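Ligand: nicotinamide-adenine-dinucleotide. Inputs:
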Amino acid sequence: MSGPRLQGRRIVITGAAAGIGRATAELFAAEGASLALLDRDATSLGELAGEAISVDVSDEKSVATAITKAASAMGGIDGVVNVAGIFPVAALEDTSLDLWEKTIAVNLTGPFLIARAALPHLRKAGKATIVNLSSASAIVPFRELSAYGASKGGIITLSKVWASELGPKIRVNVVCPGMTRTRMVSDWHPDSEKLAQTAKATYALQRIAEPVEVAKAILFLTSDESSFTTGSTMTVDGGRTFH
Ligand code: NAD
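Predicted complex:
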């Protein structure tokens, strides 16, 4: 396919201020998309091309306002990418109800609220896409990730429900990254040398991902190049889940 792959597409990206969401915003802008960039940290969105919109994805009213702003800034919405997420690590006995509820609220309720609010616009667009971010750790889980694992497992099933319900006009897919070089991972593994050793031992590709490598999979699932793909769960994990 030649030419920009998202020319004329109007896309909402959540979690666009940092990490994978930011790399996706940069790649999508280069591919010709109009963008509404949503994040709770709206100040760093200003450096990116697109409409910067402040949101808490776990708050119904905040999401409704943000999606209305996004649709009016772009003249509609024909794609949503749900990247915003949090990653609390805690043993089961240390997982407070508050931590559990907050994680589910951001990682699972957030994509639900965003997609539901965007749906009338996606339907109007005719052909539309939703891409949700899960994790390789939803497929081969790690210990001490009760709330995160539940939220990321839930998003895979939720996406299949939507793919069934919203076809043929709206395609819904999931990307499951392995460890990717973002703040989320450096907070978890502050020792980068040790992290590199872990990746060498547990990843077929012997390294962690750069954010743009995950963004490229999101681009594929948002563009027409994946026109016959829906309800699919794509691992972008350097082989971690089978190696
Ligand atoms: P990150 O922490 O670098 O960025 C997350 C972004 O989400 C931030 O800009 C943050 O402000 C935003 N955000 C968090 N809570 C929000 C809320 N309530 N409302 C609005 N915005 C909110 O994270 P990342 O590493 O880029 O991860 C992005 C997604 O990919 C997450 O869903 C994460 O679970 C998933 N993921 C990441 C990795 C990894 O290794 N980095 C691996 C697997 C899955």
